[in-house]
């Protein structure tokens, strides 16, 4: 599940990625230590490490679809898709995609949300990767997997830059493997 | 190693243009929506799109690619990666954690706000602003203002598509606009 236990043990790139994450306490609400990945994108070298690691892993898996979850999945997915020759499919909040879509609801801590995908974006039998910046409960990723499977695609793996502790010990999501680069960054002496 | 044959610019633009899907009456009646998601389903067209921007900007010492939420997040980072620049997301309100600066801009009815992280960019840096499409130029001009407020030099705005009848180009002030498809 974690890159460090999956062939990249001791890889200095992982440490660089971890250290570039900015932790913002109490966002979006008190008690949450938000893993801000925008700082990764401010460091070109680190952004390249992230893309290179994912591309090296996926380039020989005959993946033809990279599905990125709105909006931060859009920041990482396309570069991977371009490098491995796959198409990029945006999975979006309701009402954003024009034309015909299918939708999948998923649970939030309080209430429900919904993810949409274009009909016709993926063909039956295509192999897909799902990408997002951070995985917490896995709710959005699970919805993404369902959308792709409903269209007959095979989800090969879900890939995230940061994986939160709730998923510790769980290396699969809906039966699909989960690949995560780093654990959440912790900051000392906070609040 | 065999030399890579690159299609001519015209051929690439022709493929890019044909890969864009037009959806009538979205998001409301009368609007012919230019849907770039079909471009993203064509790996060659998507690669050509990025290559055309990279060819233009790679020797211009661009330090920052600012992408406008959300479709600017699809095109901006691959360009930034290829030219060695940082990527800065320009977002709707309350999405960015931590300290932000914000800029209001007008919509057809009412106003909206765009935010950027404090400290993402530094005075004197050279920036590109990227979005999938320019319509009225409202969001692009808000992005330019945000960057200029902190002393950044906005070199150019880059979009895949322009809707020239909406005269968005005029709202960009003295900033040049580069588009692939008009």
TrEMBL record, chain A:
Superkingdom field = Eukaryota
- Report the enzyme's class at the first EC level: transferase
Q: Which molecular function GO terms apply here?
A: adenine phosphoribosyltransferase activity
Q: Which CDD domains does this entry report, sorted A to Z?
A: PRTases_typeI
Q: What GO terms in the biological process aspect are recorded for it?
A: adenine salvage; purine ribonucleoside salvage
InterPro entries per record: Ade_phspho_trans (IPR005764), Adenine_PRTase (IPR050120), PRTase-like (IPR029057), PRTase_dom (IPR000836)
Q: Mind listing the UniProt keywords for this protein, alphabetically?
A: Cytoplasm, Glycosyltransferase, Purine salvage, Transferase
Please name the SUPFAM superfamilies in this protein's record. PRTase-like (SSF53271)
Name the Enzyme Commission number(s) assigned to this protein. 2.4.2.7
Identify the residues that the record assigns to the Phosphoribosyltransferase domain, covering every copy.
53-166
Pathways involved: Purine metabolism; AMP biosynthesis via salvage pathway; AMP from adenine: step 1/1
Q: Name one GO cellular component term.
A: cytosol
Q: Where in the cell is it found?
A: Cytoplasm
Q: Which reaction does it catalyse?
A: AMP + diphosphate = 5-phospho-alpha-D-ribose 1-diphosphate + adenine
Q: Which family does it belong to?
A: Belongs to the purine/pyrimidine phosphoribosyltransferase family.
Subunit structure, briefly?
Homodimer.
Which NCBIfam families does this one have?
A: apt, PRK02304.1-3, PRK02304.1-5
Q: What is this protein called?
A: adenine phosphoribosyltransferase
**To which species is this protein native?**
Fraxinus pennsylvanica
TrEMBL record, chain B:
Gene3D superfamilies documented for this protein: 3.40.50.2020
| Molecular function as annotated in GO | adenine phosphoribosyltransferase activity
Q: Does the keyword Transferase apply?
A: yes
Enumerate the spans annotated as Phosphoribosyltransferase domain. 42-175
State which Enzyme Commission number(s) the record gives. Answer: 2.4.2.7
Q: What is its main location?
A: cytoplasm
Keyword Thylakoid assigned to the entry: answer is no
| Locations listed in the record | Cytoplasm
* Domain of life, source organism: Eukaryota
Pathway recorded for this protein = Purine metabolism; AMP biosynthesis via salvage pathway; AMP from adenine: step 1/1
Q: Which InterPro entries match?
A: Ade_phspho_trans, Adenine_PRTase, PRTase-like, PRTase_dom
What keywords sit in the KW lines?
A: Cytoplasm, Glycosyltransferase, Purine salvage, Transferase
Q: Which GO terms describe its biological process?
A: adenine salvage; purine ribonucleoside salvage
Which transformation does this protein catalyse, written as a reaction? AMP + diphosphate = 5-phospho-alpha-D-ribose 1-diphosphate + adenine
List GO terms (cellular component aspect).
cytosol
The record's subunit annotation is: Homodimer.
Family membership, please give it: Belongs to the purine/pyrimidine phosphoribosyltransferase family.
Q: Which PANTHER family match?
A: ADENINE PHOSPHORIBOSYLTRANSFERASE, ADENINE PHOSPHORIBOSYLTRANSFERASE 1, CHLOROPLASTIC
Q: What is the designated name of this protein? A: adenine phosphoribosyltransferase
